[in-house]
Structures are given as C-alpha cells and as structure tokens.
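Researcher: Go.
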Amino acid sequence: MAAQPTTTSTTPSSNTGPYTADTYTRHPDHTPQTSHPETDTYILTLHTDPAHHKTITALRTRHFPSHLNKLSAHIALFRALPGSELPTIETAIRDLVRLTRPFPIETRDAFPLAHGVGLEVHAPPAKQIFRTLEGQWGGFLSRQDRGFRAHYTLQNKVDDGELVRKTLEEVRAGFEGSTGTVEGLALYSYQRGYWKLRQVFPFTGGEEEVRQKQDTTTRKMEQDEWPALPGS
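Model: Structure:
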C-alpha cells in the first residue's frame, strides 16, 4: 500500500512569505486543546488506492501555487492530534480499522474556498469514522478538528479572486471526475508545514468474518466426514 500524501520537496521552501516552513505558525484554532503546549502533533487522513490518489494529486499540482505546495492530494479527518495522546490515538485507530471494510470514494462538484478551490467527494463511511473517533478524542481536539467535510483542496492561499474564479470554472468544465477506494487510514507527524508518514492502518473489517466462515465450514466438513458414533 503506497504512502500518501507525499511532500512535494524534501527541504523547506526558499521563498519568503508567511507560508514558508521557516516562518509558518499554527493558528490557535488549529492547536490541540491540552493542558500544555504540544511539541508534536499528528494528522489522520483517508488512505486511497494509488490510481485515484495520482489523479487528484495531478489536479492539485496543476492549480496549487507551486512555491507553497508541500503535499500531494489528501483528505484529512483530523489535522492536529496531540503527541501526548499518541498511544490512545493509535489504539483507537487500530480498533476502528479492524471493524471497517474498504469503501468507495467518488469526486463530485468543485466549490469555492476563501482563497482557492475544493473538490467535494462522496464517501459516506468517512463521516461515520470521523464521528466515532471524535467521540473518543473530543477532550483534546482543536476547534478546527471538531467538524469534518470530506473534500480535496485543489487550490489554496490565493488572494487573486479572478484566478480562483477561473480555476473553479476550469475544474468544473474540464475535470471528468475520479472514483477509487478508501483502503485505510494514514497517520502523519506534522513538521512545520510538512508531513512525515508514521503508519498506514489498512481496513481489515470483513476479514475476520471470512475467517470465521472458513472455520465454520471446516468444522462442518470434519463433522460430516467423521460422524459421531452412537452412544458417544
């Protein structure tokens, strides 16, 4: 299972401005609600099949300002999970993926963001995943992480309203859409605007059911082959 999203470069941008790795600071709404400052934070995303991921990443690369684009395409469930709660976080993720099957994802219409363009996606189980984990992590989530709208960000950090409008029109007119499969969840460490993959958690729900059915079938076959003797 391929790691995603990848960073677009391995070193911080040399461009000056508010979004370089050297000057980037997190908004207070994007900070975990813990009793002490967090030196390490983590991002949890949906992990899709490589073909779908490649298609949406190409679209993002086309429209995102190149000197600010640090990531490939992604759908973030949570963007600021505290490192101090990492054991609790990873346990909850492992418990959830064992009960979850891979599910389809489909892009829908493009829509305007404050400074760019987003792409709506249809993947209903993602909302339930968010609600399940939010219910367990509500005590330390950032204000930003208390809501979830499944979408890709194709363009952001653009102050030129005319460029945003043209991008929106181009995507709506020219992008034919993409379907794929959400295969699991991926956890990344946040490093001054860049993400480093920590672990991919594949969905394995249904595999246990298959094993149970196989065991049941095997036991039945054994019973049919070796029937109980009278009086035994």
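Model: The radius of gyration is 22 Å.
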